C-alpha cells in the first residue's frame, strides 16, 4: 500500500523539456489526465475492487443461498440441509462485513493518494515556473486546483474501486439470474445500459453547470486572496465595504450555479430511483408469473426478489461514479491547463560554467566588483528592483496576471466565449513573449559570460536574489532558517545574530523547535524580514542581491544589521538596494540610478560631497541615524545566545 504523501519527482528542471518524465501528468486532454491519475492509483483501486467484491457478497449470494435453503431445506423438512445453507449464508455475511473494513482502507487510501499527488504536482509546477506562474494563471485558480479540485480527484479515485466492484457483482448476479431464468437474466442484463442511457441527456447540462460553478469559485478564491493580502491597504483607504460587496456578489453567483447543478444531479438521482424501482417491479412480476407457470420454485422467486432489491446498490454506485467523473472532468480541464504550463527558460545551446567575476548590466551600465559590498541607490525603488530582477535573470513583473479563461465555457453565450478566447490568446502571447525574452542575449554578464549562457539551475545555486516579497513558511524556526538542514547550529546562530533576529528565538519557548505559523503570523513585519535575511545569509551564495532588506525594521536594528552584515559577507559579492544612510556608509561602492541608468558611482562620502542628486535622495535619512553602534570588528558577544541544544537531532527535510 502507498505511503502518504506519495513521492512526486515531476517538474524538477527549471528549463523546458521536450520529453516528459515518468512523474509528470498527461495533460493532452481532461480524459487522458483522469486515466493517468487513476493509473497512479491502480494498485489501491485493484485492492479496493477485490475487497469490495467480497463486501458485495452478502447482496449477491444471500438471495441465492436463501432460495436454496427454502427449496432444499424448509420445503423438504430437511433440517441438516436447512442448517447447511443457513451456515453458508452466515459465512458469506461475516466475510462481507469483515472485508468492508479492508475495502474502505483501500478506497480511502486511493482518495488520499490522488489528493496529495495533485497537491504536490501543483506545488512542484509552481516552484518550477517560479515568478512566471502568476503571469499565466490566476492565484484563485491555482488554489482551487490544489484544494477543492484535488479533493474531487480523490473522490473519483475512491469511487472507482467501488464502481468496479459493483460492476463485478452486477455481472455475477446476471449470471445467476440467467442460470435460473433466461428471460429474467436478459432483463437484468439489458436494464443497466438502458437506465444509464436514459440518464445521459441530463448529464450534459449538469456538467455545464458544474463547470460554471467551479470557474466562478476560482474567481471567488482569487478575490479572497486579493482581499486578505491587501487588507491593510483596504482599511487605509476605506475600501473594505467595496471589496466585501464584490465578494458577496460573486459568492451569490457561485451559489446560483451550484443550485442549478444540484437540480440536475437531483433529477438524475430521482431518475435512477424511479428506473431501479420499475426494474424491481418488473422482475417481481415476471418472477411471479414464472412461478405460477411452474417454471420457478418458491425459493427461486424469493431469490429473484432479493436480486431485484440488491441491484439498487450497484446502480446507485454507477450513478455516483458518473457524477464524480463529470465533476472530475471539469476539474481536470483546469488542472491540465495549469500543469501544461512550461517555464520560458531553455537550456543554453553552448552552456558555460559559473565563473565568479565582475557583474555588469548593459542596460544600466551597472558594475559590481567581486568580493565587495555594492549598494544601488535610486529615487524610484522600482528602478533598483528592476535591476535586481535582471541580475537574477528574472523576467519583468510589470504585467499583471491574466484572468481565468476557458474557451469551451458557454456561461455567457457567444460573447462570453469570444472573451474567453481573447484571454486565452493573451495568455499564449504572454508566454511567447516571456520565452523570447528569456532565451535571447540577457545583457547581464558575470565574469564576462552572459547569464543566458549559464544553465539556470547553476545560476540559482551561485546567485540569489532576495526581494521584499520573500515569504516565511509554516514550520519550526530551524526549518525556516535552515530549510535544507545542511548547516551546523553554530552557523545558524551566527546568521540569526547577523540579521539581528535572535529576539525571535528568545520569544519561542521551544527555541529552535518553536513553531511559526504560515506566512509568519504572530511575527511583526520586521521580524519576518529579519528571518528571511538570516535564511539568505546562511545559504551563503557567491553573489547575494538584497532588495530593501531592512525596510520594515527600526533604525537601531537597521544600524546593527548594517554593521554586522559586511563582516559576515567579507570576501563574498553582495549587492544591496536601499537609500538608507545607515547602510551607505558601510558600502565599498555606491551607484546612483536615474531613469534606469547609472549616473554616478563612488563611496558614500564622495557622492555626498560631490553629487547634489545623490544628496537629494539620501539626505532625508540623515536625521534618523542613531549613535554609532558597536564596531563590526568587535561584535557585542553578550548579545549572542547559547541556543538550546534542541537543534541537534531535529527533523530534516521532507
Give a structural overview.
The protein is of the alpha/beta class and 654 residues long. Among the domains are: 1-181 and 299-342, ABC transporter type 1, transmembrane domain (ABC transporter transmembrane region fold), CATH 1.20.1560; 201-295; 626-654, no CATH class. Helices cover 61% and strands 7% of the residues. The chain is built from 22 helices and twelve strands. The strands form three sheets. The chain has a six-stranded mixed β-sheet, with helices on both faces. Strands 2-1-4-5 form a four-stranded antiparallel β-sheet, covered by helices on one side. Strands 7-8 form a two-stranded antiparallel ribbon. The longest helix is centred in the middle third of the chain and has 53 residues, at 240-292. It is elongated. The two termini are 20 Å apart. Mean pLDDT is 81; it is low at 407-411 and 623-654.
Amino acid at each position: 500500500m502507498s505511503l502518504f504523501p506519495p513521492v512526486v519527482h515531476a517538474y524538477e528542471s527549471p528549463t523546458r523539456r521536450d520529453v516528459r518524465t515518468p512523474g509528470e501528468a498527461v495533460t493532452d486532454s481532461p480524459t487522458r489526465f483522469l486515466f493517468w491519475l487513476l493509473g497512479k492509483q491502480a494498485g489501491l483501486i485493484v485492492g479496493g475492487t477485490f475487497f469490495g467484491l467480497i463486501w458485495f457478497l452478502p447482496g449477491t449470494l444471500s438471495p441465492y443461498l436463501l432460495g436454496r435453503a427454502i427449496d432444499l431445506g424448509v420445503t423438504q423438512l430437511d433440517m441438516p440441509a436447512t442448517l447447511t445453507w443457513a451456515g453458508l449464508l452466515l459465512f458469506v455475511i461475516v466475510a462481507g462485513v469483515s472485508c468492508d473494513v479492508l475495502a474502505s482502507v483501500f478506497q480511502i487510501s486511493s482518495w488520499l493518494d490522488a489528493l496529495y499527488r495533485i497537491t504536490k504536482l501543483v506545488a512542484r509546477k509552481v516552484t518550477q515556473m517560479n515568478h512566471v506562474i502568476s503571469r499565466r494563471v490566476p492565484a484563485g485558480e491555482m488554489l482551487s486546483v490544489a484544494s477543492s479540485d484535488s479533493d474531487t480527484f480523490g473522490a473519483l479515485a475512491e469511487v472507482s474501486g467501488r464502481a468496479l466492484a459493483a460492476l463485478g457483482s452486477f455481472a455475477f448476479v446476471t449470471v445467476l439470474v440467467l442460470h435460473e431464468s433466461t428471460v429474467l437474466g436478459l432483463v437484468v442484463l439489458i436494464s443497466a445500459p438502458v437506465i444509464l442511457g436514459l440518464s445521459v441527456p441530463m448529464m450534459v447540462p449538469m456538467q455545464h453547470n458544474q463547470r460554471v460553478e467551479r470557474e466562478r469559485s476560482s474567481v471567488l478564491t482569487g478575490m479572497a486572496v486579493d482581499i486578505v493580502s491587501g487588507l491593510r491597504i483596504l482599511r487605509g483607504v476605506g475600501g473594505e465595504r467595496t471589496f466585501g460587496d464584490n465578494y458577496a456578489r460573486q459568492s451569490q453567483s457561485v451559489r446560483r450555479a451550484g443550485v442549478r447543478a444540484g437540480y440536475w444531479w437531483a433529477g438524475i438521482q430521482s431518475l435512477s430511483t424511479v428506473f431501479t424501482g420499475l426494474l424491481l417491479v418488473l422482475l417481481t412480476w415476471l418472477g411471479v408469473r414464472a412461478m405460477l407457470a411452474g417454471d420457478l420454485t418458491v425459493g427461486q422467486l424469493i431469490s429473484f426478489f432479493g436480486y431485484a432489491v440488491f441491484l439498487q446498490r450497484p446502480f446507485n454506485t454507477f450513478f455516483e461514479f458518473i457524477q464524480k467523473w463529470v465533476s472530475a472532468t471539469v476539474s481536470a480541464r483546469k488542472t491540465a491547463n495549469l500543469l501544461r504550463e512550461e517555464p520560458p527558460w531553455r537550456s543554453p545551446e553552448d552552456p558555460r560554467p559559473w565563473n565568479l567575476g565582475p557583474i555588469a548590466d548593459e542596460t544600466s551600465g551597472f558594475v559590481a566588483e567581486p568580493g565587495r559590498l555594492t549598494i544601488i541607490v535610486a529615487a524610484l525603488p522600482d528602478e533598483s528592483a528592476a535591476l535586481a530582477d535582471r541580475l537574477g535573470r528574472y523576467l519583468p513583473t510589470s504585467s499583471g496576471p491574466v484572468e481565468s479563461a476557458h474557451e469551451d465555457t458557454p456561461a455567457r453565450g457567444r460573447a462570453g466565449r469570444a472573451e474567453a478566447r481573447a484571454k486565452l490568446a493573451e495568455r499564449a502571447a504572454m508566454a511567447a513573449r516571456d520565452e523570447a525574452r528569456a532565451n535571447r542575449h540577457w545583457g547581464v554578464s558575470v565574469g564576462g559570460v552572459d547569464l543566458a549562457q549559464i544553465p539556470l539551475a547553476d545560476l540559482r545555486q551561485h546567485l540569489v536574489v532576495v526581494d521584499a516579497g520573500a515569504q516565511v513558511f509554516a514550520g519550526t524556526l530551524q526549518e525556516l532558517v535552515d530549510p535544507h538542514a545542511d548547516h551546523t547550529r553554530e552557523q545558524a546562530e551566527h546568521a540569526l545574530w547577523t540579521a539581528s533576529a535572535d529576539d525571535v528565538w528568545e520569544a519561542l519557548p521551544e527555541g529552535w523547535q518553536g513553531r511559526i505559523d504560515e506566512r509568519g503570523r504572530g511575527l511583526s513585519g520586521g521580524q519576518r524580514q529579519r528571518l528571511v535575511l538570516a535564511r539568505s545569509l546562511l545559504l551563503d551564495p557567491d553573489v547575494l542581491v538584497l532588495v530593501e532588506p531592512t525596510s520594515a525594521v527600526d533604525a537601531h536594528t537597521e544600524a546593527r544589521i548594517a554593521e554586522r552584515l559586511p563582516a559576515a559577507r567579507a570576501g563574498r559579492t553582495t549587492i544591496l538596494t536601499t537609500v538608507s544612510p545607515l547602510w551607505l556608509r558601510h558600502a565599498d561602492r555606491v551607484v546612483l540610478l536615474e531613469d534606469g541608468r547609472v549616473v554616478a558611482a563612488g563611496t558614500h562620502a564622495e557622492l555626498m560631497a560631490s553629487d547634489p542628486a545623490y544628496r537629494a535622495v539620501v539626505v532625508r535619512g540623515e536625521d534618523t541615524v542613531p549613535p554609532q553602534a558597536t564596531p563590526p570588528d568587535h561584535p557585542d558577544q553578550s548579545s549572542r545566545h547559547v541556543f538550546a541544544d534542541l537543534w541537534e537531532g531535529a527533523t530534516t527535510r521532507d
